[in-house]
Design brief:
Largest sheet: 4 strands, antiparallel
Shape: elongated
Low-confidence stretches: 299-309
Order of helices and strands: HHEHEHEEHEHHEHHHHH
Oligomer: single chain
Helix content: 55-70%
Number of helices: 12
Distance between the termini: 53 Å
Length: 311
């Protein structure tokens, strides 16, 4: 069905409409990021981190409701096991009174009978250092990707792949800003994974475009037709790979619990938009930049051409 729509002018029209949609989504994401920003977690903002165990298995929702009655600020409770829990408090909520209130409540309640294992304060300076190191790692990965693409592809295909990569990251960050999902170290790690996955998708399509442009019999075909043929020949592989990966990430999203939920949401979104951008941006932008079979013709100087023309 998709191969049918990618034929001729219809396929070219769909690719350009997809690129226009991508541009609108990027602008919306940038606007959302500037207006709402990201909801940084305790990894970056600092606050108290308390670990405790209960004498018997307690449902997470029941324990969360009980603590909320004895806690005036915001907190995040995660289960590390059947009777092992971790509570995070934001700096504005992690006052001494709040900490003593909920800790006393869970330790003195006979049904819960909790025992506090550790309580530590994560300073904002540590969070700033983690954020700086994470951004530095992402920047280094982007530089490495650009160097790799510059060596592997003709500059037009390389530019298309880099723009597609930036597009994917901006859309994921825009989604987290729009929904105010907590942005922590696991989400930052997922962005690095998205860089690798999106790059792989773009390279598969770019390699096929380059192969078809090098075939001499394709010189009579327009660049748009060649790009459509390249996408059709790689579409099945792309969809199968993305589909199986999405199934795995969806399982993590649904079954792994709150600690990995942000990671799974970011990776799931990155795979979807990465597959979309490899077709609508990585393969379409080079066409707008003038990509054609002539870019892959072997250039021969005048002297060599004279020798070749001699009988």
């Amino acid at each position: 069905m998709l191969n049918y729509f990618l034929k001729g002018e219809a396929g070219t029209r769909l690719r350009f409409m997809g690129m226009l949609l991508s541009a609108m989504l990027v602008l919306l994401s940038v606007f959302t990021l500037t207006q709402k920003g990201l909801n940084f977690g305790l990894d970056f903002t600092g606050g108290y981190l308390t670990e405790f165990t209960t004498s018997q298995s307690v449902e997470l929702k029941e324990l969360q409701s009980f603590i909320a009655k004895n806690h005036n600020g915001e907190f995040e409770l995660t289960a590390q096991g059947n009777s092992h829990f971790q509570l995070r408090e934001a700096p504005s909520a992690s006052t001494t009174a709040n900490s003593l209130d909920w800790q006393s409540a869970v330790t003195q309640n006979d049904d819960i009978n909790a025992q506090v294992l550790s309580s530590a304060y994560i300073g904002s300076q540590v969070g700033d250092e983690l954020f700086d190191q994470g951004c530095l790692a992402m920047f280094a990965a982007m530089i490495a990707v650009m160097i790799y693409l510059a060596v592997r592809f003709e500059w037009r295909l390389a530019v298309g792949s880099v723009v597609a990569l930036v597009h994917d990251l901006i859309l994921v960050l825009g989604l987290f800003s729009l929904l105010q999902i907590e942005f922590n170290l696991t989400v930052l790690a997922s962005l690095l994974a998205i860089i690798g996955y999106s790059l792989n998708d773009s390279i598969i399509v770019g390699d096929r475009v380059r192969e078809l442009l090098r075939v001499k019999s394709n010189n009579v075909l327009s660049p748009a037709t060649i790009i459509n043929n390249a996408i059709k020949s790689t579409l099945t592989r792309t969809l199968i790979t993305s589909g199986t990966t999405l199934a795995t990430v969806a399982s993590v999203w649904l079954l792994a619990g709150a600690p990995l939920q942000g990671f799974a949401i970011a990776l799931f979104t990155g795979i979807v938009v990465g597959t979309f951008s490899s077709i609508c941006i990585a393969a379409t932008l080079p066409e707008l930049l003038g990509l054609s079979a002539k870019n892959y013709e072997v250039k021969v100087d005048a002297h060599t051409q004279t020798l070749l023309d001699m009988p």
